[in-house]
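Re: that chain you flagged

S.,

Sorry for the slow reply, it's been a week of failed gels. I finally had a moment to sit down with the sequence you sent. For the record, here it is as I used it:
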Amino acid sequence: MLWDKKPAVADREAQAPAPAVVPPAAKPVAAPTVKPFEEKTMAETVKPAGITPSDTGRTQWGRSLVVKGDVSGNEDLTIFGQFEGTINLQGHCLTIGPEGKVKAEIQAARVVIHGSVHGNISVKERVEIYKTGHVVGDLMAPGISIEDGAYFKGKIEILRDDVREPELYSTSSSKPRLSAVAPGAAS
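Prediction finished late last night. Pasting the structure tokens below so you have them in one place:
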């Protein structure tokens, strides 16, 4: 019965250590190595998540940004917000997102427009206006692409290095500079 048990025997069994059960195929686990503390500067420790060195040549301005002034740089720029001023990205690409609104004089290697631009655009390679794009201003570029449904109001000047038209008109008047010499007359 329950009352017949001897408490002394139960206490000795409780004090004895239990035998360790080791599985036959258990391998020893190496203790984790602790790296020594390395002192770093603030610039080295603060890195935005998801940014890799290959992404450093692009900058994006979000929808909530409203910027006024002059922008120049040596990397590509994408604008989803609003900008007013001048943009100079010689050798790089400017992209205006679908909700981007830009009032600026723009100089870049390439301009891609999905949003709204008011101002003159001068590029070295190409201007692309997509169907969601809205442009009011003059374009100067070697290549221009305007998708069906896009809005454009302004002048277009196609720049060509290899072919130059002869200058037939003087800069002072709109009349052609032509000269005629009568036969037998000295010039």
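What I noticed first: The longest strand covers residues 82-96.

Talk soon,
D.
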